[in-house]
Amino acid sequence: MTMKTKRRLKSLLKYLVLACFLVLTMFPFVWMLLTSLKGSQGEIYAFPVRYLPNPASAVSYVAMLWKGNFGRYMLNSFFSSAVAATCAVFIAILASYVISRFHFRFKNVLLLFFLVTQMIPMFIMLAPLYQLLAKAKMLNDLRSLAMLYTNMMIPFSVVTLCGFFDSVPKSLEETAWIDGCGYFKALFKVVVPVIMPGIAATFIFAFINSWNELFMDVDKFKTIPVGLNGLILKYDIKWGEMAAGTIMSLVPTMCLFAFAQKYMIEGLTAGSVKG
User: Fold this and answer.
1) In Å, how far from its chain's centre is CA 100?
2) Kind plus residue range of the DSSP H or E element containing 136
3) Residue range 224-235, pLDDT digits in tens
4) Is the peptide bond before 48 cis (omega within 30 degrees of 0)?
5) CA–CA dist 201, 271 (Å, integer)
6) Is the pLDDT at 179 greater than 50, yes or no?
7) How many C-alpha atoms does 84 have within 13 Å on its Cβ side?
8) Beta bridge partners of 221
9) What is the distance between the alpha carbons of residues 161 and 86, in angstroms, rounded to a whole number?
10) Where are the domains of the chain?
11) For 245-261, what is each residue's pLDDT tens digit?
């Protein structure tokens, strides 16, 4: 067997493995799409299984958009996720800059604390959070949901951005200081533009984590995960509407990934290297 044949076999094996991973990754999405296009529960539960809808129907999408409140759920999710991601990233920029650039006691303990908070399940804090919001008269308010998501995303954003700040040479700021810039001006005029890919990557992860969070269950302020969870009835599950809602909920995040794919790759690569 010649070297050229060996290289071709290796390439073929590599593409076969990648094709298998692609099929495994895309199968749930394709199955949900096909399920959402089936016209009735009987067709979904049919045995033997009918993989393709016959005929394709948009009745599940109509039920979610016109008969249900899916549009309201999407607006609630978008508002709370966008506000939470923006506030969390802005606070994390300031906090991670201080942690990266200044030396103080218990610095490593602080970073460890941020990491430990990511290991605590959110439902453990439901009781104290409910009491806190009740005393502040902020129950049943979309702003309180955005505030909770912001608090959840700050530790993750701080830990992530610390790596990006560590990769920026301090000489850039020193040059700005010589030119008369203060700490804040040097941060936002010099350092932030350099780590913008990292900030974009952090924002996207914070947005998607908030987008997928299942928390508030008030009809007026339901988010998409809560609304989809409401399709699980006592004796039945509305699989067609749930699949249609899931497909529609993927559209904003897919558009966000497609728009910021370049920044995501640059950010994740830069954050793994220290200068």
Assistant:
1) 25
2) none
3) 888 888 888 777
4) yes
5) 10
6) yes
7) 31
8) none
9) 14
10) 60-270
11) 888 888 888 888 777 77
